[in-house]
Design brief:
About 10% of the residues lie in helices and about 50% in strands. It has one domain (about 1-25, about 40-280): Neuraminidase (6 Propeller), CATH 2.120.10.10. The radius of gyration is 18 Å and the shape is globular. The chain is mainly beta. The chain contains one helix and 18 strands. The strands form five sheets. Strands 1-2-3-4 form a four-stranded antiparallel beta sheet, with no helix packed on it. A four-stranded antiparallel beta sheet has the order 5-6-7-8, with no helix packed on it. Strands 9-10-11-12 form a four-stranded antiparallel beta sheet. A hairpin with a 5-residue loop joins strand 11 (about 180-185) and strand 12.
Length: about 280
């Protein structure tokens, strides 16, 4: 039952990531949009994760993945200027030479780029969080990894940077005695891990979709969390930014029997977190 639940949860994770990508790129259908330029890059795997960000010069940074000649995947990072011309493109391939995916990207005031995703780092570890820093020219500065206590699926789904340059990453991670749990990690600007905090509900599957930072510094993560084997709730967890201690949990069930998966999180003018939900029904 546990192996089946993990595999099913991973499928739901892929659905959530796909919907999160759509949520990032959708717009009000009453808005007139005129295509200025179009560019394509890479040959994404069936796991079509991708994310984009603008740097301070309005260059577009995109991360995703591309299938390699041996049928595996590398994390792909591409920079375009405002005219749509490709400035540079780099791939990341862990030394284990297996599968690497980019899922989220942010930039800083110096045009450095931070990417979060997942890499297969060994047969024993399976998928691990990967967090990468690149300079404005696409040169890799450092790479950091997280292997959860279950040494199985550890998949980063989102990251944010605070005003002090700290990086916060969230994702799902297999526990030692639990299934997939929320895992939120803080790194300083040099890539040194400051803390890692895990959230589990009833030993079931928990998959975070998005992270945001309140003006007070507190970290807010939202996603889908199993309340039974056949029902998921929206679960939003707040963390102390200095210690990683959980300072509050809010769980909401939309009613009925189904899988409730937030795809994104934002703040209103009062900095209340707002979730973009998707309800999947059997």
């Amino acid at each position: 039952m546990k192996n089946f639940s993990l595999a099913f949860a991973f499928i739901l994770l892929l659905v959530a990531m796909h919907l999160n990508t759509f949520a990032q790129t959708s717009f009000n259908n009453s808005t007139l949009a005129y295509k200025i330029w179009e560019a394509t890059a890479g040959n994404p795997d069936t796991i079509d994760w991708s994310a984009s960000a603008l740097d301070v010069s309005r260059n577009l940074i995109i991360t995703g993945n591309t299938v390699t000649s041996n049928g595996l995947t590398n994390l792909l990072l591409t920079k375009y200027n405002q005219a749509g011309a490709q400035v540079w493109q780099v791939q990341y391939n862990h030394s284990y030479n297996n599968r690497d995916y980019g899922a989220a990207v942010v930039t800083d005031a110096s045009k450095n780029i931070y990417v979060a995703g997942t890499s297969v780092t060994s047969a024993a570890n399976g998928y691990d969080f990967v967090v990468l820093k690149y300079d404005s020219n696409g040169n890799q500065q450092w790479a950091k990894f997280y292997n959860g206590p279950g040494s199985s699926y550890d998949v980063a789904t989102d990251l944010k940077r605070d005003v002090s340059g700290n990086i916060y990453v969230c994702g799902t991670s297999t526990g030692a005695t639990t299934q997939l749990d929320y895992c939120t990690i803080k790194y300083n600007s040099s890539g040194v891990q400051q803390w890692a905090s895990r959230y589990d509900y009833a030993g079931l599957t928990d998959v975070p979709a998005a992270i945001t930072i309140h003006s007070t510094g507190r970290i807010v993560v939202t996603g889908g969390s199993g309340s039974t084997f056949t029902n998921w709730d929206f679960a939003t967890v707040k963390y102390n930014p200095f210690t990683g201690a959980q300072s509050g949990v809010n769980r909401v069930n939309s009613g009925g029997i189904g899988y409730d998966l937030p795809t994104a999180i934002a703040k209103d003018q009062y900095e209340n977190p707002l979730k973009n939900p998707v309800m999947l029904r059997p």
